[in-house]
Design a protein that fits this description.
This protein is an alpha/beta fold. The chain contains 19 helices and 28 strands.
Length: 680
């Protein structure tokens, strides 16, 4: 009775078409209940029932037309919503990277209320801290000529109100950050906003301290270790215009900054800009797209630009701004290459020269940085007699030894077993745990230099929310003599006290089967060299390698980025690799080897048919580097060429069809990676 008489029955019903974070590429229709009418508009985040679950999705459009079938109702609406410009960007991400709008939106919006409601709330949301490291920072610096020229160009870009892209190529310590800060200030003084992207969490502490000093409460900091509640609070303070400059890793790009004018991507070549789960976007590419859509100035900055960006700057697509000298003309460090083939194999990982220099450095009271160029922190186990190597039970991966718990572990799936005392193949007790990991090197160093004060920075020592920050702070305080670590130590930390940099195994990355391995090695070595002697004295870099004749090292010695890139680009052009082509990497995985290979084989035939007349090469299927992972078999197909949106859709459609036709094929999972940064 009541119901019939209520005014609700006479009003027009409203329905929301909602995108959900699932692979189904369609919108789901829900009725908007009376009490929520007016609160939902396109871009709103809503909670809806799907089957037995409750999901959070984005209302993409509203309509008054009912569906033929009965529709469920929207349960609630959360405060965060996607403004139109981010809706558009999300659409682009979804179509370019090959996922659904709902899946892409998950990376864009902070976590919803419902899912994070159970998590602990923000504890005072302490974001910044005062680092002793920035004590040297002057309040107002006078810019150098090169900095001023760069800033003037960026300023013109910002004022033009058009899309402009710049490469700020500046050697380490040339004052790029100072230029970013001034450019951001400029954007803010024009009433606009700014986003500054920095790679991964280890760089954040120093960046936060520096930007906070200049922008205080105008600054919003985003990082992956925030709780859902903290994230939402920050999102809201950005969206309502309280905070106009945002600093953070890749996801910060999707901040709803009011009147955005400028996006800065620092260390643009960094792999951490690529998200390795769906949507597999590269924040650098998306930044340029956001720049085009919203007519922004985008500054890609680096001491070691990626081949892609370097080439675009070479052809004039981006304007190139150069800072070729360090501040106060501090000379770049001297670089020496040490041929490890000439060293006594019994002496361990340190060459004689490196030991001498380390000792000299300690005596003088300056700091040293040791870089172990390792993937992970692996120590390989091997039988000295028969060559047996332990393998993971689930993956085609060698197990590595961990002193903690005396276990052999798989880095991919976590499988572990106790370290063997005898070879299971031949029974020999002569097992070597000889590969070098950071833990082992730390012990060796302590043996060589009793009482040495050493800090280790690797995946083990940086766990937890404050891991990186603590180590960096400790080392920056200057009491420690040596910082030893993996890739993490190469990034732009500024340690005035470091004089010597030692690279312990330069070819680990070079030998890795990836067309970017030379580029990565060179970038890492330039970056880590840049940590040496940043203040008054000329620093020293020693690079140990078993292949000193590689061209990477000759260009490194002369600090010749252009020379290296010229050679590298010639190779890429010849082999038709990016930046001269585009890649899509497609990985099929499943529990049944036969089914996976049947699907991959059939699909690759289909792809060849599809692209017969096109400029697209279909490579594979081939087993990837890791052919079995977590008990699943894998086949890899690589597409080389610029695929249009239409062609991508056709290729994906082909997969669905093939998988559907082969018995058990639906269980085969496809990982579709556009512009891949890594290969399995
Ligand atoms: P990059 O980002 O290129 O590594 P930074 O901007 O961090 O370089 O600058 C390196 C150091 O030089 C920092 O300590 C910074 O404060 C200082 N610096 C930058 N610009 C100037 C300048 N114009 N005059 C004096 N010192 C500067
Ligand atoms: Zn053996
Ligand atoms: Zn494993």
């Amino acid at each position: 009775m009541d119901k019939l008489e209520s005014p609700a029955s006479s009003r027009t019903r409203v329905f929301a078409k909602v995108a959900l974070p699932i692979p189904a590429d369609k919108l789901f229709t829900y009725e908007v209940p009376f009490e929520l009418a007016g609160q939902i508009s396109p871009g709103s985040r809503v909670e809806v029932p799907l089957g037995k679950r409750i999901m959070s999705g984005i209302a993409v459009e509203l309509s008054s037309e009912a569906e033929a079938f009965e529709t469920k109702s929207v349960l609630s609406v959360s405060g965060t919503y996607l403004p139109p410009e981010l809706m558009r960007l999300t659409e682009w991400v979804a179509s370019y990277y090959g996922c659904t709008f709902g899946e892409a939106a998950q990376s864009v919006l902070p976590p919803s209320f419902r899912r994070s409601a159970s998590r602990r709330p923000a504890r005072g949301a302490k974001q910044g801290y005062d680092s002793p490291l920035d004590a040297l920072e002057r309040d107002v610096l006078e810019l150098t000529g090169a900095q001023r020229t760069a800033l003037t160009s960026i300023e013109k870009g910002i004022l033009s109100g058009a899309f402009n892209a710049f490469l700020l190529h500046g050697v380490t310590g040339s004052g790029k950050t100072e230029v970013y800060i001034r450019a951001a200030r400029l954007a803010l003084s024009r009433g606009g906003g700014c986003i500054v992207l920095v790679p991964e969490i280890s760089l954040l502490p120093q960046a936060i301290a520096r930007y906070r000093k200049h922008f205080q409460d105008e600054l919003a900091v985003i990082h992956s270790r925030l709780t859902g509640a903290e994230r939402r609070a920050i999102w809201e303070s950005i969206s309502d215009g309280t905070r106009r400059i945002v600093l953070g890793p890749r996801s910060a790009l999707f901040s709803p900054v009011r009147d955005l004018r400028l996006v800065i991507v620092d260390e643009e070549q960094d792999d951490s800009y690529k998200q390795e789960e769906k949507p597999r976007y590269n924040a650098r590419s998306v930044a340029l797209m956001r720049g085009t859509f919203e007519r922004l100035t985008v500054v890609l900055g680096s001491a070691t630009p990626s081949a892609e960006t370097y080439r675009h700057a070479g052809t004039g697509t981006y304007a190139r701004l150069l800072l070729s000298k360090r501040i106060r003309d501090i000379p770049l460090p001297s670089v020496e290459i040490i041929d490890m083939r000439r060293e006594d194999p019994e002496t361990g990982i340190f060459s004689r020269l490196l030991l001498e220099r380390l000792e000299a450095c300690m005596r003088r009271g300056s700091q040293s940085l040791l870089f172990l160029n390792k993937r992970g922190h692996a120590r390989f186990v091997q039988c000295r007699k028969c060559g047996w190597v332990p393998q993971c039970a689930n993956c085609d991966i060698t197990l590595t030894y961990h002193r903690v718990g005396a276990a052999m572990r798989c880095h991919y799936c976590g499988f572990a077993q106790p370290a063997v005392k005898q070879c299971p193949e031949c029974g020999s007790p002569n097992i070597s745990f000889s590969g070098f990991g950071t833990q082992r090197i730390e012990l060796d160093l302590k043996g060589l230099f009793p009482g040495v004060r050493i800090l280790r920075m690797d995946a083990d020592t940086t766990r937890g929310k404050e891991g990186h920050r603590k180590i960096l702070e400790q080392f920056g305080a200057g009491r420690h003599q040596v910082l030893l670590g993996t890739q993490m130590v190469t990034k732009g930390h500024h340690f005035p006290g470091v004089h010597l940099v030692g690279v312990l195994s330069a070819e680990e990355e070079l030998n890795f089967p990836d067309f970017r391995s030379a580029e990565r090695t060179f970038q890492q070595l330039v970056q880590v060299s840049g940590r040496a002697g940043r203040e008054e004295q000329r620093g020293e870099v020693l690079v140990q390698t078993f292949i000193p004749e590689h061209t990477v090292f000759s260009h490194l010695k002369t600090h010749d980025y252009d020379g290296f890139m010229a050679e590298e680009l010639a190779v890429r052009r010849k082999l038709n690799y990016p930046p001269f082509s585009r890649l899509v990497s497609a990985l099929c995985a499943g529990g049944d080897r036969g089914v996976v290979s049947a699907v991959a084989a059939e699909w690759s035939k289909e792809l060849r048919r599809l692209f017969r007349e096109k400029q697209v090469d279909v490579l594979g299927p081939a087993p990837p580097l890791v052919a079995r992972l977590k008990g699943r078999f894998r086949e890899h197909i690589l597409l080389k060429g610029s695929l249009s949106l239409r062609e991508k859709t056709d290729a994906l459609g082909g997969f669905a069809r093939v998988a559907g036709e082969i018995k058990g094929g639906r269980a085969v999972e496809l990982k579709w990676d556009v512009d891949p940064q890594s290969f399995y």
